């Protein structure tokens, strides 16, 4: 898992990719890391979903996700279509408090680019949705800019989704109760502990130290 410093370097590298695409996607990737949104949830984030105060923590209230499919399998005939949240009933929402750093990024993004007619915050210059291949390209190029050759060759932050894994693991590592983490991430506690409770890069020695201190009490 990437640690917070590595995540910041990756996010800072996003705007350097391409002439327009990267800079329009930095805040989307930031939502995946700082709010543990799934990529398809970030893609469908609307203005009405966000409470973004000038200072302090904000709030995202998720309503829908926007996964990519094929036209023949969507009701609208489009490759992207809004759907209910994963593991949630129709019209059920999920609340995620978001830290000031993400609030500031979203405020800046909205001030610069506005929103689509349907309220979507993240869209192409023509109002469309970015494809999964577009996200992936930007992410892989950012990895080349932000990580060491050894890290690039490894599985560290290999996919945009890995930012979500890193976020949830960080919350658990700093002591946020598993029930609260599961609520924010949109998972059951069982799935949370089985899938997401992994060590963040560079924290193995710190964890070992905590265990050693406890053993020596």
Summarize the structure.
With 217 residues, this protein is mainly α.
Overview of the structural elements:
The chain has 217 residues and is mostly helical. The chain has helices at 4-13, 21-34, 39-43, 100-113, 132-146, 149-153, 161-173, 178-185, 189-196, 204-215; strands at residues 50-51, 58-62, 64-65, 83-84, 94-98. A 3-stranded antiparallel beta sheet has the order 1-2-5. A two-stranded antiparallel sheet has the order 3-4. Helix 1 (4-13) crosses helix 5 and helix 2 (21-34) packs parallel to helix 7. The protein is globular, with a radius of gyration of 18 Å. Mean pLDDT is 85; it is low at 69-77.
Structural key phrases:
single chain, 217 residues, mainly alpha, 3-stranded antiparallel beta sheet, 48% helix
**Structural class label:** mainly alpha
Main pleated-sheet profile: 3 strands, antiparallel
Query: What's the helix-strand series?
Result: HHHEEEEEHHHHHHH
User: Which term fits the overall shape?
Assistant: globular
Strand order of the largest sheet: 1-2-5
* Oligomeric status: single chain
Average pLDDT level: 85
The tally of beta strands, per DSSP, is 5
**Which residues sit in consecutive blocks of at least 5 with pLDDT less than 50?**
69-77
- Radius of gyration (CA) equals 18 Å
Distance between the termini: 30 Å
How much beta, percentage-wise?
5-15%
Helix content, binned percent: 40-55%
Number of helices: 10
